[in-house]
Amino acid sequence: MNRDRVEGGIRHLRGRAKTAVGAVAGRPLPQVEGAIDQVAGAAQYAYGQARETARDLRRDGAHLVAEAGRRGRDVAEDLEERGQRYRNEAVHRGRAVARRAEDNKTATLLLVAAAAFSLGWLTRRAR
Predict the structure, then answer these.
(1) Is 127 a residue whose pLDDT tops 80?
(2) What does the domain layout of the chain look like in residue ranges?
(3) Residue 8 · residue 41 · CB < 8 Å
(4) What are the tens digits of pLDDT across the range 40-65?
(5) What distance in Å separates the CA atoms of residue 54 and residue 73, rounded to the nearest whole number?
(6) How far apart are the C-alpha atoms of 91 and 76, rounded to whole Å?
(7) Which residue numbers delimit the CsbD-like domain (predicted)?
(8) Can you tell me the distance from the alpha carbon of 49 to that of 44, in angstroms, rounded to the nearest whole number?
(9) I need a labelling partner for 112 at 20 to 30 A (CA). Which of 86, 100, 103, 106 fits?
(10) Do residues 32 and 21 make contact, with C-beta atoms less than 8 angstroms apart?
(11) 42: nearest Cα among 95, 82, 5
């Protein structure tokens, strides 16, 4: 609770009391002043309540921004870890293929020659 809410509540109650005293005494001026104080107190109370709501929203917004940043960092770390795993797997498989090609030189040479011939045949110009 902030100062505006407290002062507004007090001013509103003081206005109600002034209105009641003016009504009992039969004097219209204190009644009007009391009604003005009631309205002003209610407005000041509402202003204080709006300030608190704005403060709460700002706090919640800052919390959401911090949470989004944390989640973003978590996702980035996860993606980096996955990328590293995929890279390591590709390197491992590439080395396995290179070893297999080294162990089977004749078959590798025939496969490369067949692939080159096929590529050349597919890309040749039609006459």
Answers:
(1) no
(2) 8-125
(3) yes
(4) 999 999 999 999 999 999 999 999 99
(5) 28
(6) 22
(7) 4-56
(8) 9
(9) 86
(10) no
(11) 5
At a CB cut-off of 8 Å and minimum separation 6, what does 51 contact?
2, 4
Cα–Cα distance, 1 to 19 (Å, whole number): 26
- Cα separation, 62 vs 57, whole angstroms: 8
Q: Please compute Rg for the chain using Cα positions.
A: 41
Q: Which ranges of the chain would DSSP assign to H, the alpha helix? A: 3-25, 28-103, 105-123
pTM of the predicted model, to two decimals?
A: 0.55
Which residues, at least 6 apart from 7, have a Cβ–Cβ distance to it below 8 Å? 41, 44, 48
Are 44 and 6 in contact by the 8 Å Cβ rule? The answer is: no
57 vs 65: CA distance, rounded Å:
12
Q: What's residue 125's pLDDT?
A: 79
- Interatomic CA distance for residues 86 and 59, integer angstroms: 41
- What average pLDDT score do residues 114-122 get? 93
